[in-house]
Amino acid sequence: MLNVCVLGTGYVGLVTGACLADLGHAVTCIDIDPAKIEGLARGEMPIYEPGLDEVVARNGEARRLSFGVDPSGALGEPDLILIVAVGTPSGEDGSADLRALFSAVDQAAGLRAASQAGGHLTIVIKSTVPVGTCRAVEAMVARRLKPGSFSIVSNPEFLREGCAIEDFTRPDRIVVGSASEAGLAAMRALYAPLTSQGFPLVEVGALETSEMIKYAANVFLATRIGLVNEFAQICERVGADVDELSRAVGADRRIGPAFLKAGPGFGGSCFPKDLRALTSFAADLGCPSEIAGAVIAANERQKHAMAAKIEEAVGARLCGRRIALLGLAFKAGTDDVREAPALSILSDLIAAGASVTAYDPAAGEHFARLVPGVRIADRIDRALADADAVVIATEWPEFLTIDWMAARLLMRRPVIVDLRNHLEAKRLIALGFTYRGVGRHASPLPVSLPAYAPQPMGVQDISEPPSRAPARRGPVAGGPIRVFDQDEARREGAVPAE
Ligand SMILES: NC(=O)c1ccc[n+]([C@@H]2O[C@H](COP(=O)([O-])OP(=O)(O)OC[C@H]3O[C@@H](n4cnc5c(N)ncnc54)[C@H](O)[C@@H]3O)[C@@H](O)[C@H]2O)c1
Ligand SMILES: O=c1ccn([C@@H]2O[C@H](COP(=O)(O)OP(=O)(O)O[C@H]3O[C@H](CO)[C@@H](O)[C@H](O)[C@H]3O)[C@@H](O)[C@H]2O)c(=O)[nH]1
C-alpha cells in the first residue's frame, strides 16, 4: 500500500483516486472547490460516470479513500506519490493554460518543505501538458525542495469519459516517463496491481517523450474522426454509405475499426483543446503541425454544416421552426458538455431563427449553465411536442427506445435528423418519417455516367482530349459527374456540331 495524494478531483482526479484506492493504496483526493468536496463527503458524485459511485463508496468505507480541500496533512507523509490532475484548458490563443497546474504544484512544494517530512516525494503530472511543462515543474519544485528528495514523472491519462473505470482498470497501456529511477520505481509499485495482471507499463526515459505521447494519441484519434467525417460529406454527395465504408475500411487490420464513426464533429474537453495546444506549441517550436491544424478546421466545418442539413431535411427555412434537440453531452455516457457539437448546432439554429427545445438524460443541467435561457425539457416527449424536426446529436441508448409512432403524433412534421446514425433508418422511413443521417442518403442520387461523346467509327485522332466540355467547378446537380443527352452534349461542346 502506498500513500497517494491527488490534486484536482475532477473527471480524471476522482476516477484515478478512487481506482487507485480500489487497487489497495491509501488515497486522499484534494480539490479547491469546497462544494465538490462536501458533496463527495456525503457520497454525491460531482460527475456522471457509470460505476464511479460504487468504487468511491466501497473505498470510502474501507477507509482507503478520503477527500479534502487542504493537502497539508497528506504532504507530511514521508513517502508520498502526489498526482496532479488539475485542468489545463485552452487559453484565448489556443495554448494550454497552465496556471492551475503551476499554482497547485508550487503550493504543494511549499507545504512539503514546511512539513520537513523525510522520505521521497514523487510528483506525477497526469494532466495533459505541452512538451516541456514537466521540466518547468521540476525547476519550480527544485527552488523549494532538496535535490534527491523528490522526482518528477509524466504519467498521461488515456481514459475516456463514460467508460473511465474500465479504461483505468483495464488499460491498453500505462505510460510513465522520467529520467529519475526513483520516480520510475514508484510508478512500478503504484501500478503493480495492474501490471501483475498483464496490463503493460510503457516506461520512457524522458519526460518529453511521455508528454508528447499523449498529444500524439489524441491527434491520431481526432484525425481519424476528421477524415471519416470528410468521407461522410463526400458519401452524401454521391449516394454512398459512410457506415458501410467505415466497416469495410476498418476491416483492414492496418487501419482497425475503432474511431471511424461519422457524426456531427468531435467535441469534449480533450480533442479540441489538445489539438489546439499541440498546434500552438509546435508552431512555437518552429515545426508547425499542419495536419492537426487541418483537422481542427475540418471539425469546425463539420459542426457548422449540421444546421444546413437540418434545414434541408425540414425542406424550408428554419426561421420560426421548432426543433427538438436530443443529446447535449459531447457523446453518450457522460454529462460533460465541454465543446459538445450540440452547442454549435444550437447556436446555428438560434441564429437561423429556429426555436429549440433540448433534452439530455444526464447533461441538461450542465448545458443550461453554459447556455442560460435555453429551453430544456425534462422528458423526451415534451421536447418533441409540436416539433418541425427532431435532431439526434448524441448517441444515448435511451433514444433507441423512443416510440416513434407516438412521437409522430406529437410532432408537427415527421422529420428526423440523426447526426449519429444511431436509429434504424429503414423502419423510420417506413413509418413515414423524412430521415437524414450523416454520410448516407435515404434515397440514392440519380444515376451518373461519365460524359460520353461517341466517336466516328474508323481511325480516331487521339491527339485531342476525348471531351472538350468546359471544366466545371463546384457541385453539379445529379452528382459530381453530369450525364448529357446528345442535344445537351452538343450545346456543351462535348460533341462536334453536325
Ligand atoms: N476528462 C478526461 O476525460 C481526461 C482524460 C485524460 C486526460 N485529461 C486531462 O486531465 C486534466 C484534468 O481534466 P479533467 O477533465 O479531470 O478536469 P476537471 O475540470 O474535471 O477537473 C479539474 C479539477 O481540478 C481542480 N483544481 C484546480 N486547481 C486546483 C488546485 N490548485 N488544487 C486542487 N484542485 C484544483 C478543479 O476545481 C477541478 O475540480 C486535464 O489536463 C485534461 O486534459 C482529461
Ligand atoms: O468514432 C468516433 C469516436 C468518437 N467520436 C467523437 O469524438 C469525441 C471524443 O470521444 P472519446 O474519445 O470517446 O471521448 P473522450 O472522453 O474525450 O476521450 C478522448 O480524450 C481523452 C482526454 O485526453 C483521452 O484520454 C481518451 O483516450 C480519448 O479517447 C466525442 O465527441 C465523440 O462523439 C466520433 O465522432 N467518432
From TrEMBL:
Q: Which residues form the UDP-glucose/GDP-mannose dehydrogenase C-terminal domain?
A: 324-425
Q: Name the family the entry cites.
A: Belongs to the UDP-glucose/GDP-mannose dehydrogenase family.
This protein is called UDP-glucose 6-dehydrogenase
Q: What is its EC number?
A: 1.1.1.22
Q: Which SUPFAM superfamilies match?
A: 6-phosphogluconate dehydrogenase C-terminal domain-like (SSF48179), NAD(P)-binding Rossmann-fold domains (SSF51735), UDP-glucose/GDP-mannose dehydrogenase C-terminal domain (SSF52413)
Asked if Nucleotidyltransferase is a keyword of the record, the answer is no
**Class in the EC hierarchy, top level:** oxidoreductase
Instruction: Supply the source organism for this entry.
Output: Fulvimarina uroteuthidis
> Where are the compositionally biased (Basic and acidic residues) regions?
484-498
Q: Which UniProt keywords apply?
A: NAD, Oxidoreductase
Q: In which pathway does it act?
A: Nucleotide-sugar biosynthesis; UDP-alpha-D-glucuronate biosynthesis; UDP-alpha-D-glucuronate from UDP-alpha-D-glucose: step 1/1
Q: State the source organism's domain of life.
A: Bacteria
Catalytic activity entry: UDP-alpha-D-glucose + 2 NAD(+) + H2O = UDP-alpha-D-glucuronate + 2 NADH + 3 H(+)
Name the PANTHER family on file: UDP-GLUCOSE 6-DEHYDROGENASE TUAD
Lineage of the species this protein comes from: Bacteria, Pseudomonadati, Pseudomonadota, Alphaproteobacteria, Hyphomicrobiales
In alphabetical order, the GO MF annotations are: oxidoreductase activity
Q: Where is this region: Disordered?
A: 456-498
Q: Does the keyword Metal-binding apply?
A: no
